[in-house]
Amino acid sequence: MNFFKTKTSSPKVEGRVEGVFKVTGTGKYSAEYHLDGMTYAVIVGSTVPAGRIESIQLDQAKQVEGVLDILTHQNRPQIPAFATKEKLDKSGYSLPVLHTDQIYFKGQPIALVVATTLEDAMYAASLVTATYRKTTANVDFDGSHKGVDAEPFGKERGTMAAWASAPHVAEAEYTIRHEVHNPMEMHATIATWHAPGKLKLYDKTQGVNSVQQTVSRLWEMPKENVEVISEFMGGGFGSGLKVWPNVPLAIMASSQLKRPVKLVLTRPQMFTLVGYRPQSWQKVRIGADKSGKFTGIWHQAKHATAIYDNFNEGIVRISRMLYDVKNIKTEFATVPLNLSAPTWMRGPGDCTGAFALESAVDELSYVLKMDPVQLRLQNLALRIDPDTGKPWSTNYMGECVTKGAEMIGWGDRKALPGTVKDGDWQIGYGMAVGMWFAGRQKASAAIRLDKDGVITVETAMTDIGTGTGTAMQNIAHEYLGIPKEKIKVKLGQSTLPPAPSQGGSTGLSSLSGAVTAACEAFKSKMDAYASTAGEQSSPANYSLIMQKNKLTEVLAEASSGPGEEQKKYAFCSGAAHFCKVKVHSKTGKVKVEKMASVVDAGHIVNQQAAANQVSGAAVGGIGMALSEEQLTDNRYGCLVGNDLAGYHFAVNADAPIIDVDFIHKTDVNINPTGSKGVGEVGIIGTAAAIANAIYNATGKRLRDLPITPDKVLLS
Amino acid sequence: MKPFDLLRPSSIAKAISAKQSQVQFLAGGTNLVDLMKKHIATPDALLDVTPILSSQITGSTETLLIGAAVKNSSAAMDKLVLSSYPLIAKAILAGASPQIRNMASTAGNLLQRTRCPYFYDTTLPCNKRNPGEGCGMREGESRMGAIIGHSEHCVAVHPSDLCIALAALDAEVLYTIAGEKKPMVIPFKDFHRLPGDAPEKDNNLPQNALITGVRIPKNPFSKNYAYVKLRDRDSYAFALVSVAAALHLQGDRIVEARLASGGVAHKPWRWYQAENFLKGKIPSAEVFAEAAALAADETNPLVGNAFKKLMLKGAIEVALQNCLTA
After folding, report:
1. Same domain, A329 and A425
2. Which of A313, B52, B72, B250 measures 20 to 30 Å from A219, CA to CA?
3. Is the pTM above the cut of 0.90?
4. In this structure, is residue A450 part of a structural domain?
5. How many domains would you assign to chain A?
6. Which burial class, exposed, middle or buried, applies to A550 when counting CB atoms under 10 A from its CB (0-12, 13-18, 19+)?
7. Is CATH 2.30.30.110 what the domain over B224-325 is classified as, yes or no?
8. A100 by DSSP, 3-state: which?
């Protein structure tokens, strides 16, 4: 596909490189490709949450016109890495889909119907039935975690005894309900064995190379024989970081039928097959001396996981790095349940942990009768990462706090809760901070110059909607001086220079180094050609230089990754979130009136895209704080509800205008552009800021997310 | 989805004669198609009645008549509705999304089925979907459930917003049935049912009858009215509790009051006691609170939704207050 040849009628507005493709519908998402001979597959899920399959009845389904085949654990082609238990354990893939009769959760794929049309496949799938030998299922996190002890997570620093008699202490338990990602675009895979032993996948994923590696491992084939394409993505939020059952299922079906197979999850399947943020319990005890200096933190946490996949998001990590505190103890455990595997969801771990920690710090501020802003400024670990002892390369969280307080009008906050009223509404202010390790991974990029003087910047990384493509264009423009309209971007294909998945706020941090390195390599190549041609090496002369050298194309590829700096420094992105809420005293309704987020993410490559990520994350934070909750029913061992009418993401109507600003101070050590990741810190701490504001408004301390109106009314 | 035939009858008479239990009428399809996708409705054929039903809104000195095929968005923007029956527009705009309102019909809105998650999941028990199977919600996740008029067989709530306004305004449902020449009428308060021991029946519309319109009598509620909807987010969510309120004020007194609620029962619920209480009173926060308490005291919440009683009381107070500032 000739990518990103954007014509824009409004040259003054600098949009995203992929913007026109998205809004005109010409950009192709994974499910939108059509291949000759395409067949359509639909997953049949288990109707019981635990037990073994006794038999599967396919007769009725097979009679549906257009049905080509129905795969089950009894007839599917063998995935080599699932051949023996030893191999399966080594494969790193937790769910041996269609390679077991064991049922771990309700909705687990037990059959795959493939037909010539989607309609036929869907209807036939509804006719597949199974009998099971049922066993008792458990999806009750609240009841189960009490029987699981949290174990040490990270080394204990100092001692508990050292702050046993701290004059000021806050201690409380915090819980967060099961949340789902549910990006707008459904997960989808098209699989085709297009030549003997050669597989091509169009897959909704945050990392084409990761899919390529996983599939080559499962099928025991060279990774060069697996091509993965994910050019556009309609949201991921972490759900696209793993290879979910839809991928091996589509590949198996394509092997069996020797035809391309398209498999798109249904919206209900999005609730059970592509991960979620697990339900969690936390307890935080935090002590301070008379001056408000923290003397100790004890943070315990547990979250749900699957019986077959011990996912662990490390909730307590944030308590180890945020504050300068001598004594710290962190403990953690997972609680296996008959649910599908959870996974990373926006701000994984730290987002959950920050709700508890930052609520507890707020509680302590009222115990101390001290302004929460002052309390943070006094205790943030701004120089040294307390966990590694290494100096932070840069950490401007103090400035984030100060600036955010100004933006929200913190001076209008009354220290005494429940004192500001407007009719039946109570008004309050809250704040919290968030931190995320600023990671960087090895990535590669290429620059390709064609004879018309147009360059294409290429990488395998997928732009999940964060603006990676636009940022690549921005960086190439800055480094090469080539006008932006002559810079194209090509990404999301495994045949392009390899790059890590886009996740964990590492995308641009990793890729910016690769793009600048590719620019350098390209420049020196052009300099050499220029001197051969006897011309000055400048973008204006590129066509001429190529002509004189009889070249039709110039290609430069380079890689870049973390190095020695990692030994010297610790890296973090930071944020301060402030909000003003009003709470209706008679109905329990909470409205977020105003939000301000200030982020320290080093050099900001593209202000619009970065601000967009932060405000989007803040809206996610509003949902987490006030409305997102996936229900479960332990009597039936399953989730209750699987549509977007009943699962309440925050929508525009729930969000105020969100003021976003950045500190704009380059981190010279992290990578050549000095940019730190921005994706996660936008949400880490927002839920606590809102809960803290509700307390300030009402005097009600709500420690169970989401804070729906019923909880406000009943507390 | 089960394959089905799509039929386009050319007249109301032909539509009615083709109607059988496994053949369903299709209007906007915003609920029926979802039910078909989830294998809750499995008709052999659909009769597309949109072209043959009225999509007109007509007013007389006595009544307003909304044709069965009038889209929700058209009704919400209609000049006559906005000037003389504004509570209807207010309620419609509190529901669904613009895209859904553009498709959804007036008659279909009356016939939409509960959004109880146990009803929507065919692997969970539900007496409404599968009589005799048991009620999943009653002892389960009942936060969204009924607080009045429920039975041991069903605690589901009616999901519409429009219907709450129609109930408050004493509307009537017009329908036609095979063998009857004259349009038949059901008062709105008798249209929807309580679950009792037959929760599979949502309403009292005779079998194979076709709704042709909704009639609303002229009323004095175009000035002091309110629709308050409390929900988990501010758009595209079903009500936890909603209140349609309307006051007819003369001098400093309330001549007549109307109060109806969604999210509380298997049908739109009228709070007659509270309405009677308000008659003749001088509006005040205290009077409103007392009326709201009368309504709330009638309720009988489930284990999982005691909050709705408090929320209802608050919502009625807010709605009555808003009637004065509307």
Report:
1. yes
2. A313
3. yes
4. yes
5. 3
6. exposed
7. no
8. coil
